[in-house]
Amino acid sequence: MFNLDETINKYNIPLWTKRYVYRYIKRSPVNAANRMLSFIEIGRKKGRVTRKGVFLPNGMFFDINFVSEILYLFYYGEKRISESYERWAEEHSQYSKNLLSLSETTQKHARAIRNMIDGLRIPKKEPNPSAIGVFDFIDSVEDIKERIVLSSLILKYSYGYPFGFVFYKAFYPASSEFMRSFGKVFLNNKDAEFFESEAKSIILKKEISQDRLLVIVEMLLEKISYSIEKEIPLAKKAGVENEIMLLNDISIAYPLHIIKDLGIDINPDKEADSIIKRTRKKR
Fold first, then answer.
1. Which among 142, 143, 192, 226 is least buried, having the fewest CB atoms inside 10 angstroms?
2. pLDDT tens for each residue of 130-156
3. What is the DSSP pairing of strand 48-49 with strand 61-63?
4. In the chain, what's the furthest Cα-to-Cα distance?
């Protein structure tokens, strides 16, 4: 029998996610909990990869169009942020060395994902305009402290962790050779850790005013939520609409909970609901 508290403890999942998991189960009450677990708890079962798509150990099938969309999103994101780090290094001498090193690392991540795309013989896809908007917004911010917070904290805990973790855990048994390369994207390195620590310090020390911080964080999260919402039709075809909606909920709430823990006066869940409601209307 499914026990949410036991599952949260077992996988070290933040307690605040419970409300979103319950919402997910309510949307799809029949076997929803077991279906969710099947993405991360696969035991010794094996999946397989074909030109038509990916068969997961739990019996689910993802056609190659859905897989390619996810891979190209990660590829585009790593490529764009690498370019940003390189440019910022020229503009901010105090962080130049760390930014250049991080740019090189993310460029390697992009190549690893590209190798996976080529290995699966996935045809080239252009990035979704809504995803382009996410990185265009980050590029439009000129203050280095704001750039650090948005790229090393907000982006990481919205795009990277929720989606990257589930995608990696679900697809690894089906294609461990490719997923080992993909997994490198989510391994911390000293430069990424440095900038995440720097971002948290900036918030704790109020080096960006709370009003300004909330404005830029909300603007970025709206664009991120909208980019996820635009993938819902494809997720529906792939039979994972409710799962993507759950990940959207968590990806928007996660960074808001982090900045609350860093002393920002905010109701993370109320703000997340408001952002998602606005972007869902746009879809």
1. 142
2. 999 999 999 999 999 999 999 999 999
3. unpaired
4. 56
